[in-house]
Hints:
By secondary structure, the protein is α+β, with helices and mostly antiparallel strands. The protein is built from five helices and 22 strands. It is about 20% helix and about 35% strand. Mean pLDDT is about 90; it is low at about 390-399.
Amino acid sequence: MATTTATTILKIDQFIRDTSTDSVSAADRLQAISIATQDIMTEMGFDLQNATSVISYLDSVNYYKITSAIPDFTEVIDLRRGEGDNTEMFTFKDSDELAVEVANGIEVPSYAIERKDGDTYLVIIYNSEHQADSLHTCNAYDSNGEWEVDDTNSDATNVTTDTNEKKEGAGSVNFDIDVSQSANNKATIANDDINSKDLSDDEDLSSLVFWAYIPDITNFTSITGYWGSSSTVYFSATATTDLNGNTLVTGWNEIKIDWADATETPTVDTSAINYIRFDFNYAAGQTDDTDFRIDDVRMVRPEKLTLHYHSWYVGEDSSGTKLTAFDSTTDVPFYSGQYDYFDNVVAHRAAAILFKEVGLIDDYNVENGEYVKALRDLKKRFPASGRKESNSFKINLKW
Protein backbone atom coordinates (compact mmCIF):
# COMPACT_ATOMS: atom_id res chain seq x y z
CA MET A 1 0.00 0.00 0.00
CA ALA A 2 1.40 3.35 -1.04
CA THR A 3 2.41 5.92 1.54
CA THR A 4 0.40 9.12 1.10
CA THR A 5 0.50 12.52 2.72
CA ALA A 6 -2.40 11.33 4.89
CA THR A 7 0.02 8.83 6.46
CA THR A 8 2.52 11.61 7.12
CA ILE A 9 -0.16 13.80 8.68
CA LEU A 10 -0.98 11.07 11.21
CA LYS A 11 2.66 11.12 12.35
CA ILE A 12 2.78 14.91 12.38
CA ASP A 13 -0.34 14.98 14.58
CA GLN A 14 1.42 12.64 16.99
CA PHE A 15 4.60 14.77 17.07
CA ILE A 16 2.81 18.09 17.55
CA ARG A 17 0.25 16.50 19.91
CA ASP A 18 -2.68 18.05 18.08
CA THR A 19 -5.20 16.63 15.61
CA SER A 20 -7.30 19.78 15.37
CA THR A 21 -7.06 22.54 12.79
CA ASP A 22 -7.44 25.33 15.33
CA SER A 23 -3.88 26.63 15.17
CA VAL A 24 -2.53 24.48 12.32
CA SER A 25 -4.79 24.10 9.29
CA ALA A 26 -4.91 21.14 6.92
CA ALA A 27 -3.30 23.36 4.28
CA ASP A 28 -0.52 24.26 6.74
CA ARG A 29 0.20 20.58 7.29
CA LEU A 30 0.44 19.88 3.56
CA GLN A 31 2.68 22.88 3.02
CA ALA A 32 4.96 21.76 5.85
CA ILE A 33 5.20 18.28 4.28
CA SER A 34 6.15 19.87 0.94
CA ILE A 35 8.85 22.01 2.53
CA ALA A 36 10.17 19.09 4.60
CA THR A 37 10.38 16.83 1.55
CA GLN A 38 12.15 19.54 -0.43
CA ASP A 39 14.58 20.11 2.46
CA ILE A 40 15.50 16.43 2.56
CA MET A 41 15.92 16.24 -1.22
CA THR A 42 18.16 19.31 -1.19
CA GLU A 43 20.22 18.05 1.73
CA MET A 44 20.55 14.49 0.50
CA GLY A 45 20.60 14.56 -3.29
CA PHE A 46 20.27 10.79 -3.05
CA ASP A 47 19.74 8.29 -5.81
CA LEU A 48 16.06 7.78 -5.04
CA GLN A 49 15.61 11.08 -6.88
CA ASN A 50 17.26 9.73 -10.03
CA ALA A 51 15.35 10.09 -13.29
CA THR A 52 16.21 9.76 -16.98
CA SER A 53 15.45 11.64 -20.17
CA VAL A 54 16.33 10.72 -23.75
CA ILE A 55 18.29 13.33 -25.70
CA SER A 56 18.27 13.33 -29.51
CA TYR A 57 21.92 14.13 -30.12
CA LEU A 58 22.84 15.59 -33.50
CA ASP A 59 26.45 15.18 -34.60
CA SER A 60 28.05 18.64 -34.98
CA VAL A 61 25.49 20.26 -32.62
CA ASN A 62 26.84 20.88 -29.11
CA TYR A 63 24.23 22.87 -27.15
CA TYR A 64 20.79 21.50 -26.17
CA LYS A 65 18.30 23.53 -24.16
CA ILE A 66 16.62 21.28 -21.59
CA THR A 67 14.64 23.90 -19.66
CA SER A 68 11.24 22.80 -20.96
CA ALA A 69 12.13 19.26 -22.01
CA ILE A 70 13.30 18.38 -18.47
CA PRO A 71 11.48 20.84 -16.18
CA ASP A 72 12.37 18.88 -13.01
CA PHE A 73 16.14 18.91 -13.66
CA THR A 74 18.30 19.87 -10.68
CA GLU A 75 21.64 18.09 -10.94
CA VAL A 76 23.32 15.86 -13.52
CA ILE A 77 24.38 12.29 -12.77
CA ASP A 78 25.53 10.76 -16.04
CA LEU A 79 25.19 10.74 -19.83
CA ARG A 80 25.10 7.38 -21.60
CA ARG A 81 24.53 5.77 -24.97
CA GLY A 82 21.68 3.31 -25.39
CA GLU A 83 21.47 0.27 -23.14
CA GLY A 84 23.54 -2.55 -24.61
CA ASP A 85 25.41 -0.05 -26.79
CA ASN A 86 27.08 1.91 -24.01
CA THR A 87 30.62 1.65 -25.36
CA GLU A 88 31.66 5.25 -24.66
CA MET A 89 32.43 6.81 -21.27
CA PHE A 90 31.32 10.46 -21.11
CA THR A 91 33.39 12.72 -18.85
CA PHE A 92 31.62 15.45 -16.89
CA LYS A 93 33.42 18.80 -17.16
CA ASP A 94 33.03 22.47 -16.29
CA SER A 95 31.03 24.38 -18.88
CA ASP A 96 33.94 26.80 -19.39
CA GLU A 97 36.31 23.95 -20.13
CA LEU A 98 33.90 22.31 -22.55
CA ALA A 99 33.32 25.60 -24.39
CA VAL A 100 37.05 25.76 -25.12
CA GLU A 101 37.06 22.16 -26.31
CA VAL A 102 34.05 22.80 -28.57
CA ALA A 103 35.83 25.78 -30.12
CA ASN A 104 38.98 23.70 -30.70
CA GLY A 105 37.16 20.75 -32.28
CA ILE A 106 38.11 18.26 -29.56
CA GLU A 107 36.02 15.08 -29.84
CA VAL A 108 36.64 13.24 -26.56
CA PRO A 109 33.15 12.22 -25.28
CA SER A 110 32.25 14.73 -22.57
CA TYR A 111 29.40 16.86 -21.32
CA ALA A 112 28.57 19.81 -19.08
CA ILE A 113 25.63 21.78 -17.74
CA GLU A 114 25.50 25.47 -18.65
CA ARG A 115 22.93 27.89 -17.24
CA LYS A 116 22.43 31.15 -19.10
CA ASP A 117 19.68 33.66 -19.91
CA GLY A 118 17.30 31.92 -17.54
CA ASP A 119 17.67 28.56 -19.29
CA THR A 120 19.57 25.32 -18.71
CA TYR A 121 21.64 23.75 -21.50
CA LEU A 122 23.23 20.33 -21.80
CA VAL A 123 26.54 20.70 -23.64
CA ILE A 124 27.82 17.58 -25.42
CA ILE A 125 30.98 16.67 -27.29
CA TYR A 126 30.65 13.29 -28.95
CA ASN A 127 31.65 11.71 -32.26
CA SER A 128 28.29 10.08 -32.99
CA GLU A 129 27.75 6.84 -34.83
CA HIS A 130 25.51 8.91 -37.14
CA GLN A 131 27.92 11.39 -38.69
CA ALA A 132 26.60 14.67 -40.05
CA ASP A 133 26.37 14.49 -43.85
CA SER A 134 27.51 17.80 -45.34
CA LEU A 135 25.31 18.98 -48.20
CA HIS A 136 27.20 22.23 -48.70
CA THR A 137 29.97 23.89 -46.69
CA CYS A 138 29.04 27.31 -48.10
CA ASN A 139 32.74 28.21 -48.20
CA ALA A 140 32.14 29.76 -51.63
CA TYR A 141 28.92 30.53 -53.44
CA ASP A 142 30.23 29.09 -56.73
CA SER A 143 31.76 25.81 -55.58
CA ASN A 144 29.85 22.48 -55.32
CA GLY A 145 27.30 23.83 -57.78
CA GLU A 146 26.45 27.50 -57.65
CA TRP A 147 24.14 29.38 -55.31
CA GLU A 148 21.73 31.63 -57.19
CA VAL A 149 19.04 34.06 -56.09
CA ASP A 150 15.51 34.03 -57.41
CA ASP A 151 15.19 37.61 -58.65
CA THR A 152 11.78 37.01 -60.23
CA ASN A 153 9.65 35.48 -57.48
CA SER A 154 11.59 36.77 -54.50
CA ASP A 155 13.48 39.82 -53.24
CA ALA A 156 16.93 38.18 -53.07
CA THR A 157 19.78 39.80 -54.95
CA ASN A 158 23.56 40.00 -55.19
CA VAL A 159 24.84 36.60 -54.02
CA THR A 160 28.53 36.57 -53.01
CA THR A 161 31.08 34.69 -50.95
CA ASP A 162 31.65 36.20 -47.50
CA THR A 163 35.02 35.33 -45.97
CA ASN A 164 34.66 37.72 -43.03
CA GLU A 165 31.43 36.61 -41.30
CA LYS A 166 31.04 32.83 -41.10
CA LYS A 167 30.32 29.95 -38.71
CA GLU A 168 32.39 27.19 -40.29
CA GLY A 169 35.25 26.82 -42.72
CA ALA A 170 36.52 29.53 -45.03
CA GLY A 171 33.34 31.47 -45.72
CA SER A 172 29.57 31.76 -45.96
CA VAL A 173 27.13 32.52 -48.77
CA ASN A 174 25.97 36.14 -48.58
CA PHE A 175 23.03 37.86 -50.30
CA ASP A 176 20.94 41.02 -50.04
CA ILE A 177 17.23 41.84 -50.40
CA ASP A 178 15.44 44.49 -52.44
CA VAL A 179 11.81 44.47 -51.30
CA SER A 180 10.63 46.26 -54.45
CA GLN A 181 11.83 43.35 -56.58
CA SER A 182 8.75 41.21 -55.89
CA ALA A 183 5.62 41.30 -53.79
CA ASN A 184 6.16 37.91 -52.18
CA ASN A 185 7.74 38.95 -48.84
CA LYS A 186 10.57 36.46 -49.12
CA ALA A 187 14.14 36.13 -50.34
CA THR A 188 15.04 32.87 -52.08
CA ILE A 189 18.51 31.42 -52.57
CA ALA A 190 19.04 28.00 -54.14
CA ASN A 191 21.64 25.59 -55.50
CA ASP A 192 20.39 23.03 -58.02
CA ASP A 193 23.68 21.29 -58.76
CA ILE A 194 25.28 20.21 -55.48
CA ASN A 195 27.18 16.93 -55.39
CA SER A 196 24.47 14.27 -55.44
CA LYS A 197 23.79 12.60 -52.08
CA ASP A 198 22.10 9.29 -51.36
CA LEU A 199 19.88 10.15 -48.39
CA SER A 200 17.50 7.23 -48.69
CA ASP A 201 18.49 5.99 -45.22
CA ASP A 202 17.76 9.42 -43.75
CA GLU A 203 14.15 9.80 -44.89
CA ASP A 204 11.84 10.72 -41.99
CA LEU A 205 14.72 10.14 -39.52
CA SER A 206 17.20 12.95 -40.07
CA SER A 207 17.08 16.73 -39.86
CA LEU A 208 18.28 19.48 -42.16
CA VAL A 209 20.59 21.62 -40.00
CA PHE A 210 22.20 24.89 -41.07
CA TRP A 211 23.30 28.33 -39.91
CA ALA A 212 21.36 31.40 -41.01
CA TYR A 213 22.40 35.00 -40.45
CA ILE A 214 19.57 37.54 -40.15
CA PRO A 215 20.82 41.17 -40.15
CA ASP A 216 17.62 42.56 -38.57
CA ILE A 217 14.96 40.40 -36.92
CA THR A 218 12.31 43.14 -36.65
CA ASN A 219 10.03 41.96 -39.47
CA PHE A 220 11.49 38.50 -39.97
CA THR A 221 9.13 35.52 -39.53
CA SER A 222 10.63 32.19 -40.64
CA ILE A 223 12.91 30.18 -42.91
CA THR A 224 11.67 27.47 -45.27
CA GLY A 225 14.15 24.78 -46.27
CA TYR A 226 13.95 22.64 -49.40
CA TRP A 227 15.95 19.58 -50.42
CA GLY A 228 15.27 17.28 -53.35
CA SER A 229 16.25 15.78 -56.66
CA SER A 230 15.40 18.90 -58.69
CA SER A 231 13.92 22.38 -58.34
CA THR A 232 10.44 20.93 -58.89
CA VAL A 233 10.80 17.71 -56.88
CA TYR A 234 11.62 18.27 -53.23
CA PHE A 235 10.80 18.07 -49.53
CA SER A 236 10.07 21.32 -47.69
CA ALA A 237 9.26 22.57 -44.20
CA THR A 238 9.43 25.84 -42.29
CA ALA A 239 11.23 26.79 -39.06
CA THR A 240 10.11 29.73 -36.91
CA THR A 241 12.61 29.18 -34.08
CA ASP A 242 16.21 28.11 -33.76
CA LEU A 243 17.37 24.56 -33.14
CA ASN A 244 16.65 24.83 -29.41
CA GLY A 245 13.22 26.39 -29.80
CA ASN A 246 14.46 29.90 -29.03
CA THR A 247 13.07 32.93 -30.83
CA LEU A 248 15.12 33.85 -33.88
CA VAL A 249 17.55 36.70 -33.21
CA THR A 250 19.52 39.28 -35.11
CA GLY A 251 22.77 37.58 -36.10
CA TRP A 252 23.53 33.88 -36.44
CA ASN A 253 20.83 31.26 -35.76
CA GLU A 254 21.37 27.50 -35.93
CA ILE A 255 18.24 26.06 -37.53
CA LYS A 256 16.86 22.52 -37.57
CA ILE A 257 14.12 21.24 -39.88
CA ASP A 258 13.01 17.67 -39.19
CA TRP A 259 12.50 15.50 -42.25
CA ALA A 260 9.49 13.90 -40.55
CA ASP A 261 7.76 17.32 -40.61
CA ALA A 262 8.44 18.00 -44.30
CA THR A 263 6.00 17.91 -47.22
CA GLU A 264 7.01 15.96 -50.32
CA THR A 265 6.42 17.53 -53.78
CA PRO A 266 5.63 15.33 -55.71
CA THR A 267 7.84 12.18 -55.42
CA VAL A 268 11.52 12.67 -54.57
CA ASP A 269 14.34 10.31 -55.50
CA THR A 270 16.01 10.28 -52.09
CA SER A 271 19.00 8.39 -53.49
CA ALA A 272 19.95 11.43 -55.60
CA ILE A 273 19.54 14.63 -53.60
CA ASN A 274 21.23 17.49 -55.48
CA TYR A 275 19.01 20.50 -54.81
CA ILE A 276 18.90 22.88 -51.82
CA ARG A 277 16.86 26.03 -51.40
CA PHE A 278 16.10 28.47 -48.62
CA ASP A 279 13.30 31.03 -48.40
CA PHE A 280 13.88 33.83 -45.89
CA ASN A 281 10.35 34.95 -45.02
CA TYR A 282 9.30 38.30 -43.55
CA ALA A 283 6.33 40.59 -43.00
CA ALA A 284 5.19 43.38 -45.31
CA GLY A 285 7.03 45.94 -43.15
CA GLN A 286 10.43 44.60 -44.21
CA THR A 287 12.75 47.14 -45.83
CA ASP A 288 15.77 46.69 -48.08
CA ASP A 289 18.66 45.06 -46.25
CA THR A 290 22.07 43.55 -46.87
CA ASP A 291 24.20 40.65 -45.68
CA PHE A 292 21.87 37.75 -45.14
CA ARG A 293 23.94 34.58 -44.91
CA ILE A 294 23.79 30.78 -45.09
CA ASP A 295 26.51 28.47 -43.77
CA ASP A 296 27.30 24.81 -43.06
CA VAL A 297 24.26 23.01 -44.50
CA ARG A 298 24.09 19.36 -43.43
CA MET A 299 21.72 16.45 -42.94
CA VAL A 300 22.01 14.85 -39.51
CA ARG A 301 20.43 11.71 -38.10
CA PRO A 302 20.00 11.86 -34.32
CA GLU A 303 21.48 9.32 -31.93
CA LYS A 304 19.59 8.69 -28.72
CA LEU A 305 21.59 9.44 -25.57
CA THR A 306 20.18 9.08 -22.06
CA LEU A 307 20.69 11.81 -19.49
CA HIS A 308 20.56 10.60 -15.89
CA TYR A 309 19.73 13.38 -13.44
CA HIS A 310 18.26 14.27 -10.07
CA SER A 311 14.60 15.24 -10.22
CA TRP A 312 13.00 17.81 -7.91
CA TYR A 313 9.46 16.45 -8.10
CA VAL A 314 8.35 15.71 -4.54
CA GLY A 315 5.85 13.07 -5.67
CA GLU A 316 2.67 12.67 -7.67
CA ASP A 317 -1.07 12.97 -7.21
CA SER A 318 -3.50 10.05 -7.26
CA SER A 319 -3.72 10.19 -11.06
CA GLY A 320 0.07 10.02 -11.51
CA THR A 321 0.70 13.69 -12.33
CA LYS A 322 4.10 14.82 -11.05
CA LEU A 323 4.07 17.42 -8.27
CA THR A 324 6.41 20.11 -7.02
CA ALA A 325 4.30 20.56 -3.86
CA PHE A 326 1.56 18.58 -2.12
CA ASP A 327 -2.01 19.85 -1.98
CA SER A 328 -4.05 16.75 -1.16
CA THR A 329 -4.04 13.98 1.45
CA THR A 330 -4.08 11.44 -1.40
CA ASP A 331 -0.79 12.71 -2.90
CA VAL A 332 2.03 10.17 -3.00
CA PRO A 333 5.63 11.14 -2.02
CA PHE A 334 8.41 10.10 -4.39
CA TYR A 335 9.84 7.59 -1.87
CA SER A 336 6.54 5.75 -1.42
CA GLY A 337 6.73 2.01 -1.96
CA GLN A 338 10.53 2.06 -1.97
CA TYR A 339 11.60 3.44 1.38
CA ASP A 340 8.43 4.29 3.24
CA TYR A 341 10.23 4.94 6.52
CA PHE A 342 11.56 8.18 5.00
CA ASP A 343 8.14 9.33 6.14
CA ASN A 344 9.44 9.49 9.72
CA VAL A 345 12.13 12.00 8.72
CA VAL A 346 9.66 14.09 6.73
CA ALA A 347 7.18 14.10 9.62
CA HIS A 348 9.81 15.25 12.14
CA ARG A 349 10.91 18.08 9.86
CA ALA A 350 7.31 19.09 9.09
CA ALA A 351 6.46 19.08 12.82
CA ALA A 352 9.45 21.32 13.51
CA ILE A 353 8.31 23.73 10.79
CA LEU A 354 4.81 23.88 12.26
CA PHE A 355 6.09 24.43 15.81
CA LYS A 356 8.20 27.32 14.59
CA GLU A 357 5.25 28.84 12.75
CA VAL A 358 3.16 28.97 15.95
CA GLY A 359 6.05 30.26 18.05
CA LEU A 360 6.81 27.11 20.10
CA ILE A 361 10.58 27.39 19.78
CA ASP A 362 11.50 24.78 22.41
CA ASP A 363 9.30 22.22 20.68
CA TYR A 364 10.78 23.30 17.36
CA ASN A 365 14.30 22.63 18.64
CA VAL A 366 13.35 19.16 19.89
CA GLU A 367 11.67 18.11 16.64
CA ASN A 368 14.37 19.62 14.46
CA GLY A 369 16.94 17.73 16.50
CA GLU A 370 15.07 14.49 15.78
CA TYR A 371 15.04 15.39 12.10
CA VAL A 372 18.80 16.08 12.04
CA LYS A 373 19.58 12.74 13.72
CA ALA A 374 17.34 10.82 11.34
CA LEU A 375 18.76 12.61 8.32
CA ARG A 376 22.30 11.81 9.43
CA ASP A 377 21.36 8.14 9.46
CA LEU A 378 19.91 8.38 5.94
CA LYS A 379 23.11 9.95 4.63
CA LYS A 380 25.09 6.97 5.88
CA ARG A 381 22.76 4.48 4.23
CA PHE A 382 21.96 5.98 0.85
CA PRO A 383 24.42 6.96 -1.91
CA ALA A 384 24.35 10.19 -3.89
CA SER A 385 25.67 10.24 -7.46
CA GLY A 386 25.10 13.86 -8.44
CA ARG A 387 27.90 15.82 -10.09
CA LYS A 388 28.37 19.34 -8.80
CA GLU A 389 28.61 22.14 -11.33
CA SER A 390 31.41 24.65 -11.08
CA ASN A 391 33.23 27.29 -13.07
CA SER A 392 36.71 26.81 -11.69
CA PHE A 393 38.32 25.85 -14.99
CA LYS A 394 41.71 27.45 -15.59
CA ILE A 395 43.92 27.20 -18.65
CA ASN A 396 47.55 26.49 -17.93
CA LEU A 397 49.75 27.89 -20.66
CA LYS A 398 53.22 26.44 -21.13
CA TRP A 399 55.55 28.45 -23.28
